[in-house]
Specification:
Number of helices: 1
Number of domains: 1
Distance between the termini: 22 Å
Order of helices and strands: EEEEEHEEE
Strand order of the largest sheet: 1-8-2-5-6-7
Structural class: mainly beta
Helix content: under 10%
Amino acid sequence: MNWIKVSNQLPEDQQRILAFVPGNKVFLPGKSGEFELREVIVLRFLKDFYPEGSEKFIKHGPHFWQGEGNSNHFFKDVTHWLPMPAKPSE
C-alpha cells in the first residue's frame, strides 16, 4: 500500500488513519526534555473543524488532525496518510 499525499486526497471526515508527520517529537514522561522521533502516528481527520473566518481558520486552514492523548496536529503538519489496516482474522 502506498502513502497518500494530503495534497492529492484527504481522508473521509472522522476517519482514523496512519499519519506521517515529519520530525514529530514525542517527549518522554519523567525524562527531563528527552524525546523520541515518532513520525508515524494514529490520527483522526476532522474536516472543516475551525469556523470560517476564525483566527485558527485563518492561521491553520479549516481542517484539523485529532490525536490520541496529547498528539493533536494542525493540518499542515501531516504530509501523507494511509487508511487503518484491517483487523487480523483469527
